[in-house]
Amino acid sequence: MHRARLARQPALGLAGITLVLPVMVVLGAGWGGPERSLLVLGPMSTFALPVIAMIAFWWEDWPGTLLRPPLTGFVDTVLVAVGGIVLTIAGQAVVARVDLRGVFDPTAGAGHAPTFPGTMPLAGAIFVVMLELTLVTEGWPLRRLNRVAAGLVTLAVAWGIAILLYETLVAGDGPVQGGEFGGALVCIGVLQVAFYVVLRGWPFCLLGSRARRLGAANLAVIAGGVVLYLALAAAAHLDPATISAVAGSAVAAGLVVGMLFEGWLDSILPSARARLAKTVGVAGTTVLLYVCLRAYAHAVGWTHAEPEEWIAYAGLNAIGAGVILHVAIGHRWPFASPEESAAMT
Q1: Is the dihedral of CA 23, 27, 28, 29 positive or negative?
Q2: What is residue 55's DSSP assignment?
Q3: Which of 103, 238, 288, 290 has a CB 3.0–4.6 Å from the CB of 242, allowing a cystine?
Q4: Are 63 and 74 in contact (CB under 8 A)?
Q5: Rounded CA separation 289/82 (Å)
Q6: Domain spans of the chain, in order of start
Q7: 89 and 100 Cβ atoms separated by less than 8 Å
Q8: How far apart are CA 251 and CA 1, in angstroms?
């Protein structure tokens, strides 16, 4: 089945783009324009990202697998949406207080607790920690549990670590501003996607000892992400919003190359050349996405947010979530082969 899927590349990846683009439009501008969508859907979709990771990488698409496609992806997507709303309210309670108007009304003014941008550092931290536990730490040792319990425990641990980081570094008069914290998180996300989605765990997979492998991987990804952020801020003189926008485009590019076109270059090139080609592909796609998203963002009016904040959101959430939903949860429906569709039931 894997060989059959590779034989359909790159057409399969190109077909997937036709489904990812509508998701991007809905999330990016579907709530009355790009700014209103950012203010309302930005926090919701960011809090939903760990739920997507839990369903895709821990639950193996349960409970959607109880039904036949396309209901498989539909049920899981509804669960993601509901989870995103519930967890946004929970995040709002951590950062400020529960205020439903602040969740759903982008015009909520004084006296309310809007979720953007206040909850975004916490939401981003939860997702980055979730990916660190799932991909970089290889799910160890939680995969010893059954998949449902393991996913729930991982999500709870991610929330606990993220709240600790937020309260220590950002909340109140913390030493780090929310934008700086968010920018560093997105840079860590770039390395998570680069090493574990695009390069499939290379070079850490060359280390046989699990202790050495996990230690080296976590150090490289976390420290490397922080160093990358500091380098962009100091050497390139980029502000946190711009760093998040560029890094968000890089994350989206990595997901497009590593998931939509999964295995294509590896099947036609030697390993070293395939890795180089994928890296070049991610770099080129990053530039293309950032240029296009920036041109659009700067062509519309903004009153409560910055264009660069929307660019980061569009890359990370609108495009990134669409790719993961299509490939990891929807299993490329409706472009899956009959054999792949049968395997989902």
Answers
A1: positive
A2: I
A3: 238
A4: no
A5: 29
A6: 2-343
A7: yes
A8: 28
The confidence score (pLDDT) of residue 1 equals 55
If one compares 81 and 337, the residue with the highest pLDDT of the two is 81
DSSP-H helix ranges across the chain: 2-7, 11-29, 34-53, 71-95, 100-104, 120-131, 147-169, 178-193, 210-234, 240-255, 264-268, 271-297, 307-313, 320-324, 338-343
pLDDT tens for each residue of 240-270: 999 999 999 999 999 999 999 998 999 999 9
Which residues lie closer than 8 Å to 216 by C-beta, 6 or more apart?
204, 207
Tokens at 98, concatenated: 């529960």
Amino acid letter, residue 73 = G
Alpha carbons within 13 angstroms on the beta-carbon side of residue 108 total 17
List the one residue out of 268, 310, 275 whose CA is nearest residue 289: 310
Distance between CA atoms of residues 182 and 322, nearest Å: 21
Could you tell me if residue 61 is left (phi over 0), alpha (psi between -120 and 50 degrees) or otherwise beta? left
CB 193 within 8 A of CB 221: no
Provide the sign of the torsion angle of the four alpha carbons 55, 246, 200, 224, taken in this order. negative
Tell me which residue of 101, 42, 35, 98 sits closest to 320, measured CA to CA.
42
Mean pLDDT of 148-165: 98
User: Under a CB-based contact definition with an 8 Å cutoff, are residues 47 and 126 in contact?
Assistant: yes
Q: Which of 259, 178, 194, 314 is nearest to 12 (CA)?
A: 259
pTM surpassing 0.90?
Answer: yes
Say how many C-beta atoms besides its own lie within 10 A of residue 200's C-beta.
14
**Taking the CA of residue 26 as centre, how many other CA atoms within 13 Å lie in the half-sphere pointing to its CB?**
8
Which residues 6+ apart lie within 8 Å of 238 measured at CB? 232, 246
Half-sphere exposure of 196 (CA within 13 A, CB side): 22
Backbone angles phi, psi at 73, to 5 degrees: -70, -35
